[in-house]
Amino acid sequence: MLELANIRKAFNQGQHNEYWALKGIDLEIPPARVNVLKGPSGSGKTTLLTILGCLARPTEGRVRLKGEDISGLPERFLTEIRRSTFGFIFQQFNLVRGLSAIENIILPGYPTGTPRARLVERAEALLADMQLSHRRDAKVEWLSGGEQQRVAICRALINDPEILVADEPTANLDSKLSAEFLAILRRLAEAGRTVILTSHDPLVVESEVVDRVYSLRDGRLIEVVDTRRAWP
Amino acid sequence: MNRWIEKQRHLIDFTASSLARRKGKSLGLLVVYTLLVFVLASVSLYTHALRNEATRVLAGTPEVVLQRLIAGRHDLIPPGYIEKIGRVRGVQKIEGRLWGYYYDSVLKANYTFMVPNDRRIPEGEIVVGPALERSRGLAEGNGISFRAYSGELHTFIVSEVLAHESELVNADLVLMSEPDFRRFFAYPDGHYTDIALWVANPQEVRNVGLKLINALPDSRPILREEVLRTYASIFDWREGMMLALLSAAILAFGIFAWEKAAGLSAEEKREIGILKAIGWETGDVIAMKFWEGFLVSLLAFLLGYVIAYIHVFHFEFALFAPVLQGWAVLYPSFALTPKIDGLQVATLFVFSVLPYTAATLVPIWRAATTDPDTVMRG
Amino acid sequence: MSRPSDRVLGFTLLAAALFAATFVDATLQRAAHEPALQRTERLVEDLRLSDLVLFTEARYTRHLTQADLHSAFQDHPVALEHFPSGSLLPPPALLLDRHEPLDREAAPSD
């Protein structure tokens, strides 16, 4: 599905504070699985996630999406791929304050020029799926943490992406909500979506919904473990 | 094409909700902006219409008015003067005019007393302008007394009030017969106030003026084109004065709008980061911000202009009239004919919409080109 | 769900319609004023008038263009009057009061 070959990423390249966050990573993300990037802070997992999600470009190396090399594409095409193939859930949820839940959800659909009625219809279906229909017109700042996260998931799914990318999604949730969130991820993976998340939360890493764990340390991949005993 | 339109509508959706989120600020800006356009549009609409009306109405004044001067001051035309002009080539018609000023100490206003050449007014009767009807409560059949400079009182009967529709030129007139006029002012027989001349060939007016000065060195010809030019420059002068006073306000607004449009709050920067991360292109963000600047300034222009139009042509320019028309005791009340200069409106449009729209785009450029992964890295 | 852009665009469209309406109104008013304007033009021609009744506060400004060669506030002897005195403000009441006795003396007893 998504392949990385010898990925290296530098920040402040050529300056005195040059820093290599990733020092040669090769990995392959299988489709329709829940994948976790794990590692202590500073291990480069978030940087790796931005490269997997086409938010950033590697300094060196290749990114292949369904066999096609996308690391050399210009910004416009990359945005297009990001929009159609990836859905993002951020640690701080990054919802736009002042807008209602439904308006937040349909935001990623705006640049596609999809008619509003269709976007709203899709968003309503997603909200219903997350048992959030009653909060449809509530401003996002009035929602609880769990509700905000579910709105963020809906927003990530509005353009029907194949890959869902989440950065430390449970950092702001208690155990019960984290468990609910993981159950949602499971459902999504079973429905055929690929899920990639970073986490150092044992609750996530050791959860039975996770299919594969990639351990990082100091910008290198040190271990890949398939955790599910039985593949569905 | 449909997709493009739908996309722009989405962007406007977003812009509209972000404006609605900062309701107080957005509304305040719109009100101040509209007010500024209103003032500018009022002044330029009014000046243009008044200048136009003056030019149109005064097109029928005599081509040349000849004054006689003694020691640099206006003096009466003595007998025999008109006959001398008759010998100047190119002059088609000559008429002596009889008119003068009367200061009414009751109203503390000046009237223009005049003997009309186009009608006969019986002795003892007068025809008055609408301003006298209004301020002295005169009507047809009323009598009114004026005290002449000799000290004696003269009483006249008002036989007619001139039409209100022409107040711009007839408000303060008092028309009377020649014998009454001469008796009232003790005006010597055979003398006139000045002389009106008509020239056969319009191209010859200037030449006739020169010939008149040569033939009558103590005369001063006033040409119609000079009269029209004088009126144009009065209103230009007053418009300029008004704009000069306004320039401080315009500048202040400019700073305020620049500050508002060009400064991006941390909140807005964060939003742009989010939009980029969820798949908006740089161009989408810029287009969204363009709509914000364009719609706000367009709305301000349209509303300001419409209110200005109503103010000038339906409320007689009540707010600024004293500044542009001048102050006077006897004020003509008149409704201007709307005459709109397309170029003037276009200029106003460009100057009110373009700078603000541009100002909103300047900071967004840098913010919109930031990498989308900055959101992830907090 | 009512769309935010509907409201904004609707309002802008309304404003644009009003803007267009001012031009229609201007045309109608011009037509309506035309006869009166023509009568005014005739009056100016018939009475040989030369000036507007906008500045009546002083004799030398009532008929701006008919001023003396050297009158107050004139730019140049050849230039025609175009700076009416006191045109922005009426005279102060204090000064008017001072002339009150004079005015009474000169006033007719009607």
TrEMBL record, chain A:
Keywords: ATP-binding, Cell membrane, Membrane, Nucleotide-binding, Transport. GO terms for cellular component: plasma membrane. This is ABC transporter. One of its GO terms (molecular function) is ATP binding. The lineage of its organism: Bacteria, Pseudomonadati, Pseudomonadota, Betaproteobacteria, Rhodocyclales. Transmembrane segments: none annotated. CDD domains: ABC_MJ0796_LolCDE_FtsE. InterPro entries: AAA+_ATPase, ABC_transporter-like_ATP-bd, ABC_transporter-like_CS, ABC_transpr_LolD-like, MacB-like_ATP-bd, P-loop_NTPase. Residues 2-232 form the ABC transporter domain.
UniProtKB/TrEMBL annotation, chain B:
It is found in: Cell membrane. It holds the Pfam family FtsX. One of its GO terms (biological process) is lipoprotein localization to outer membrane. The keyword Membrane applies. Keywords: Cell membrane, Membrane, Transmembrane, Transmembrane helix. One of its GO terms (cellular component) is plasma membrane protein complex. The chain crosses the membrane at residues 27-46, 240-258, 290-311, 348-368. Residues 266-372 form the ABC3 transporter permease C-terminal domain. It is a multi-pass membrane protein. Belongs to the ABC-4 integral membrane protein family. LolC/E subfamily. PANTHER family: LIPOPROTEIN-RELEASING SYSTEM TRANSMEMBRANE PROTEIN LOLE. This is ABC3 transporter permease C-terminal domain-containing protein. It comes from Thauera phenylacetica B4P.
From TrEMBL, chain C:
It comes from the Bacteria. This is Uncharacterized protein. It comes from Thauera phenylacetica B4P.
